[in-house]
Amino acid sequence: MLRVPVALTSFGRLVCVPLMLVLTGQQSVTREEPITPIVVERSVEMAKLSLGERLFRDARLSHGDAVSCESCHRLEHSGDDGSVRSSATDGSTLDFNTPTVFNAALNFRLNWRGNFRTLEEHNEAVLLDRTLMNTTWQELLPKLRSDPSYRNSFTEIFDAPPERDNVLDALAAFQRSLTTPNARFDRYLQGERTAITADEERGYLLFKSYGCIACHQGMNVGGNLFQRFGIFANPFANQPIETDGDLGRFVVTRREQDRHVFRVPSLRNVAVTAPYFHDGRTTTLAKAVEIMARKQLGRVLSEPDVELIVKFLGTLTGEYRGRSLTSVKSVQ
């Protein structure tokens, strides 16, 4: 994965150092841009991916066969569930808005707090968390071993029956395949100048000039650093109570400097993954842009500029299995 170097100015503001990218595997185009196209990994083990997909869609991975990974990460749409915040297995509301699973493997850390470094580590935590899949290995593995199809697949791929490590390996292999290339902006970066409109290109120029690009760059247009939510204004000022979810990485590190610090989300497919922010506080992309400008950049953007930036963000919607992603909300 290509990353754009990020540095701190003397004012503590993040700035990007653009990379010179030479694309390979197609007509060579040299561009000096802080965003780079998604590169599809061609060397894949199809049998393992197929097994991982079966596991991802199988509710037997949860306690009582209640939910699957796909229950919250709907692959037929945008890889999330379209909810402000999902429901826990006990019926309570979770602390966070569910992020899309698409392109999650391109993030340098996982979850809003960034408390997991690998997909395998994250998957095990989800499986065992009492508010999520709520299972145990003692419950899960016998269910898989009792299924002849699973037994045969695991033996063929891993030369072993279903075990903790190979279950996590297969799930992670499938999740790494969940990238969404061929966004119109990717094609634009690769030299197809008509892939985006003049207004969308102006929106990209505003996105860079206002400083949004400082946190949202690289192949995943974000996902590769931590940042405080509320640099110029407190985004929690009008809330009656501050939840554990609002505390960000502070819950993990207990360091005061990590209060309200989150992993910067990717903006890939952002036009179809509403609601936005860790708590799903807004359902419109225009409002999300306005909030980010005021809270993170100290700027009040004009309505035309917001509209142009939103148009640019719409060009970041990619494809999965040859089909452009769509919002879960579009079918609710």
CATH superfamily of the largest domain: Cytochrome c-like domain
Number of domains: 2
**Binned strand content:** 5-15%
CATH architectural group of the largest domain: Orthogonal Bundle
Q: Label the structural class.
A: mainly alpha
Helix run count: 10
Return the CATH topology of the largest domain.
Cytochrome Bc1 Complex, Chain D, domain 2
Descriptive overview:
A hairpin with a 2-residue loop joins strand 7 and strand 8 (323-324). The protein is globular and about 60 Å long. Helix content is 30%, strand content 7%. The protein has helices at 46-57, 119-128, 137-145, 148-158, 164-176, 184-189, 198-209, 250-253, 285-297, 303-313; strands at residues 6-8, 14-16, 19-22, 30-33, 226-228, 261-263, 319-320, 323-324. The longest helix has 13 residues, at 164-176. Strands 1-2 form a two-stranded antiparallel sheet. The chain has a two-stranded antiparallel ribbon with strand order 3-4. Strands 5-6 form a two-stranded antiparallel ribbon. It is built from 10 helices and 8 strands. Helix 1 crosses helix 5 (164-176) and helix 9 packs across helix 10.
Write the layout of secondary structure elements.
Blueprint: E1 6-8, E2 14-16, E3 19-22, E4 30-33, H1 46-57, H2 119-128, H3 137-145, H4 148-158, H5 164-176, H6 184-189, H7 198-209, E5 226-228, H8 250-253, E6 261-263, H9 285-297, H10 303-313, E7 319-320, E8 323-324
Antiparallel strand pairs: 1-2, 3-4, 5-6, 7-8
